[in-house]
Specification:
Helices cover about 35% and strands about 25% of the residues. By secondary structure, it is an alpha+beta fold. The chain has a 4-stranded mixed sheet. A 4-stranded antiparallel sheet has the order 10-11-13-12, covered by helices on one side. The protein is elongated, with a radius of gyration of 40 Å.
């Protein structure tokens, strides 16, 4: 091959443009042909192809089952050129009554369970369509929807199903595309039908009125919907939001004051086995100290048994702690992102989804009516030809017997078309009885009545609305509240008042000693009164903080960057070994040091100051940090660092600078702030703040000199009292040369 030929097949363009073009093609394919459901039938392409292939295999509810491997093979070979396991997974989900509210496939064999066990291999399982799936396909042979070529061009497949069942809302849908996702919960069919009927009568119905008919999702696994009405209304208005679902539980009395809690329904898509394991782990790790044991006694129905530690445990508090720590309470996110009738993906409100379904059904009704009218018209033409035969029977027989081209002769003599002439020629001799003529006339009369009714539907919108209303009413009667699977499973409850859970309900209270080294390795040793001399550290490291606490306490960590960090004592590593670096628990940079490690007390106050001699008082309740990154309380800039953090439990503040000037003034001069730089504490000609201490004047100021303590009485130290922001003067004789208070 010549170089010219090679260069002629290469198209040069910027890599960015080429990549963008191909990625866009992939994204569009994922959105339109894989991940998002169609608003009209609520199906993704793989589900639609599954149902259509099973219809072609004649797997009706009245027929026998066929191997799932046969179904998957047909779908993959004819319509869906993807992996067989992906197709089988989609088939299995449509058959699981704990995954879809109204199953579309009737499975025989092991199709998995709510514990999360997988279905058996496709060669072992069998399936057929359910009546609801047949309703989705009803009318597909009556030109109700458009078809397109399959991927190989050998046959055609429906773009959308006629959908005589509001599948999108009834069964929900979920999918992750490129840059967008869809998550729609299942709802109760009776409530959907009531909303559709009201919307047909009142096209401008409000969301609030529609929600009065369908107050929320109806999950196949039941549970209790705990969400306020305002939130539900906003979710259905915008198409985005979430629903809080709790497990259904009851108290089982065991006599003599003892009881156990029975969980009979769990939230949607929660695997029971993992839920049980999670509760067992929490018991083992002493995170649920009021719960003694958990047992799974489930058979066909769910039965989780929760045994309290003793009879005095409040069941409400116990369950509230379980709701907060486990999947006994979950939030189902709703994102009503669907492909509309114009093949555009967008987020719809509840009213838009209902209206889109109504518009689709009206369009299907018009197309099916047209199709039936054409069939009736063709049949009437044939029957009119038959009547001509009976009126001219002898002539017709003579023409057929004698004429070389009887079809042309009959067409010319009686003005027949090709269809009529062929029908006459194909008549059986026994059809020439007098009784057949009577039957044909009766059929003509009946067809003309049907034709009139169909034309009325086609030409009158109100007649179409009435017809659709009757279809929806019939659907409600067949699959609504009175049917086996029609009763609402998820109870709708008003949000309950927040129950206060004492920390002891989730953490066992124990006395511990928290040890933190100079290099910020932290650990937690059981018990108080630990011998400090017996504590060992890593080579090159030494002790920094040793404080008594309890496992239910929170630790406040104040660093030189002016940030407070919060750590639960129960989250600290055990006392074996040297512990773990504090940097693994909080986002503390290597260039920052820890200035204080304090057991949090909501009623206490802290005094904090920076190296430039500015500071203020802050309430401990205002410094709690909710994230690893901490909470900025003392604002610093440049080379300034946080320097001091002590509890504010005295009436005087003593500050000493690096210039060895001491100043004492009342703590009442300090402002209480939640964040800021603070006020000026002391003036310096050079250097900055060295140390500070809060004390009670009547008790005097105690400082450490070497290994001994020195106390300055009130009469001695009062001479150094002045006003805030003064320079101060040299400290009294005997004051430590380190300038540390």
């Amino acid at each position: 091959m010549s170089n010219n030929t090679i260069s002629g097949s290469i198209r040069e363009e910027p890599f960015k443009d080429a990549l963008g073009e191909r990625y866009l093609s992939y994204a569009v394919s994922t959105i339109m042909s894989r991940s998002l459901p169609d608003v009209r039938d609520g199906l993704k392409p793989v589900h639609r192809r599954l149902l259509y292939a099973m219809m072609q295999l004649r797997l009706d509810p009245e027929q026998g089952y066929k191997k799932c491997a046969r179904v998957v093979g047909d779908v993959m070979g004819k319509f869906h050129p993807h992996g067989d396991q992906a197709i089988y997974d989609a088939l299995v989900r449509l058959a699981q009554d704990f995954s879809v509210r109204y199953p579309l496939i009737d499975g025989q064999g092991n199709f998995g369970n709510v514990d999360g066990d997988n279905a058996a291999a496709m060669r072992y399982t069998e399936s057929r369509l359910t009546e609801i799936a047949v309703a989705l396909l009803d009318g597909i042979d009556d030109d109700a929807v458009n078809f397109r070529d399959t991927y190989d061009g050998d046959s055609t497949e429906p773009i959308v199903l006629p959908a005589n069942f509001p599948n999108l809302l009834a069964n929900g849908a979920s999918g992750i595309a490129v840059g967008m996702a869809s998550s729609i919960p299942p709802h109760n069919l009776s409530e959907i039908c009531d909303s559709l009927l009201y919307l047909l009568k009142t096209p401008n119905a409000s969301i609030e009125k529609l929600i009065s008919f369908m107050p929320g999702p109806d999950f196949p696994t039941g549970g209790i919907l705990i969400e306020d009405s305002e939130s539900i209304t906003e979710t259905y208005k915008t198409g985005r939001g979430n629903f809080r679902v709790r497990a259904k539980w009851e108290i089982e009395d065991l006599g003599r004051g003892q009881y156990q809690i029975i969980v009979s329904e769990i939230p949607y898509l929660v695997q029971k086995s993992r839920l049980t394991e999670r509760i067992a782990d929490l018991i083992h790790n002493r995170k649920l100290v009021f719960l003694g044991d958990v047992r799974d006694e489930s058979a066909e129905d769910i039965r989780l048994v929760l045994e309290p530690k003793n009879r005095n445990v409040n069941p409400e508090i116990l369950m509230e702690s379980l709701f907060r720590l486990t999947d006994l309470e979950t939030r189902f996110s709703m994102n009503m992102n669907v492909i509309d009738s114009n093949q555009t993906p967008r987020v719809m409100s509840l009213r838009e989804v209902l209206q889109a379904y109504i518009d689709h059904r009206l369009d299907v009704l018009v197309r099916r009516t047209d199709f039936k009218l054409n069939k009736i018209h063709e049949r009437l033409k044939v029957l009119e030809g038959y009547i001509i035969v009976y009126l001219n029977l002898d002539e017709v027989i003579e023409i057929i017997r004698e004429d070389d081209n009887p079809k042309l002769e009959m067409k010319n003599r009686w003005k027949l078309n090709d269809i009529q002439a062929d029908a006459i020629l194909n008549m059986r001799l026994r059809s020439l009885r007098k009784l057949e003529e009577v039957a044909i006339k009766k059929e003509i009369a009946s067809l003309k009545i049907d034709q009139k009714q169909l034309k009325q539907i086609l030409n009158n919108r109100k007649a179409r609305i009435d017809y659709l209303s009757s279809e929806i009413s019939d659907l409600k009667k067949k699959y609504g509240y009175k049917s086996e699977n029609g009763i609402r499973k998820t109870l709708v409850s008003v949000p309950q008042d927040l129950i206060h859970i004492p920390l002891e309900a989730t953490i066992e209270r124990e006395q511990v000693t928290v040890v933190c080294s100079q290099k910020n390795w932290i650990r937690c040793i059981k018990g108080h009164n630990i011998d400090h001399e017996s504590l060992k550290y890593k080579e090159g490291d030494s002790g920094s903080f040793v404080i008594n606490a309890e496992t239910t306490d929170k630790l406040l960590v104040f660093a030189s960057n002016g940030r407070f960090y919060t750590i639960g004592v129960d989250k600290l590593p055990g006392g074996r070994g040297h512990g773990e670096p504090l940097n693994l628990m909080i986002d503390l940079g290597n260039d920052n040091s820890i200035l204080a490690l304090i057991v949090h007390n909501i009623d206490k106050k802290l005094f904090i100051a920076s190296s430039d001699g500015r500071g203020f008082v802050v309430l401990e309740k205002d410094v709690i940090a909710q994230t690893r990154s901490g909470k900025q309380v003392l604002n610093i800039h440049g080379n300034v660092k946080a320097k001091i953090c002590v509890q504010c439990d005295g009436d005087r503040l003593a500050v000493i600078g690096e210039n060895r000037k001491l100043l004492v003034f009342p703590t009442s001069d300090l402002p209480i702030m939640t964040r800021g730089r603070g006020i000026k504490l002391q003036s310096y000609s050079k250097g900055g703040l060295s140390s500070a201490k809060i004390f009670t004047l009547e008790e005097g100021l105690t400082v450490r000199t070497g290994s001994r303590k020195r106390k300055f009485e009130r009469e001695e130290i009062i001479k150094w009292e002045g006003k805030r922001a003064q320079a101060g003067r040299l400290p009294p004789t005997g004051f430590p040369r380190t300038n540390k208070l």
